[in-house]
Amino acid sequence: MSDVQVWIKETVTNNPVVLFMKGTAQFPQCGFSGRAIALLKSSGVENIVTVNVLEDDAIRQGIKTYSNWPTVPQLYIKGEFVGGSDIIGEMHESGELQAMLKA
After folding, report:
1. What CATH number is associated with residue 81?
2. Alpha helices in the chain, H assignment, sequence order
3. Please, which residues bridge with residue 83 across strands?
4. Containing structural domain, residue 58
5. Environment class of residue 26 by beta-carbon count within 10 Å: exposed (0-12), middle (13-18) or buried (19+)?
6. Cα angle 96-101-103, degrees, rounded to a multiple of 5
7. What are the C-alpha distances in Å from 63 to residues 9, 25, 92, 103?
8. Could you tell me the sign of the dihedral formed by the alpha carbons of 15, 17, 20, 22, in that order?
9. Which of 8, 26, 72, 83 stands 20 to 30 A from 66 (CA)?
10. What is the pLDDT of residues 26-37, one digit of tens each?
11. Taking a C-beta distance cutoff of 8 angstroms, is the pair 36, 17 a contact?
């Protein structure tokens, strides 16, 4: 496992909610990342750890390898890969996201 993979694993397992995204929570740099942050905030999450993949290409590529998921944003809750923007949206609409965040 590469250093980047180790760092990603530690980040997602040591923080309850992690979003790998383009930009920051305060300044998302793509619509999908902005939507993901908005959905998480509207679900009541206050402590979201965000990782701006635009700052480090090794992390940008590494997260895709780690999850075997080709796009960003990527949400992790309690170390578990949840999905991208569309999945987050579907889970929010069904109430599943809020339940997962509270559990």
Report:
1. 3.40.30.10
2. 3-14, 31-42, 57-67, 85-94, 96-102
3. 75
4. 3-102
5. exposed
6. 95
7. 9, 18, 23, 25
8. negative
9. 26
10. 999 999 999 999
11. no
**pLDDT tens digits along 37-74:** 999 999 988 889 999 999 999 999 999 999 999 999 99
- Long-range contact set of residues 83-91: C-beta below 8 Å, sequence gap at least 24: 84/32, 84/36, 85/32, 85/33, 85/35, 85/36, 88/35, 88/36, 88/39, 88/40, 89/35, 89/39
Side by side, the strands of the sheet bearing 80-83 are 49-52, 17-21, 74-77, 80-83
The C-alpha atoms of residue 103 and residue 100 are separated, in whole angstroms, by 5
Helix (H/G/I), strand (E/B), else coil: 74: strand
Beta strands 49-52; 80-83: pairing state: unpaired
User: Which residue's entry shows tokens 């999945």?
Assistant: 87
Q: Quick check: bond before 28 cis, omega within 30?
A: no
Question: Helices 85-94 & 31-42, crossing angle to 10 degrees?
Answer: 30
Single pTM value for the model: 0.95
Do you know the residue count of the chain? 103
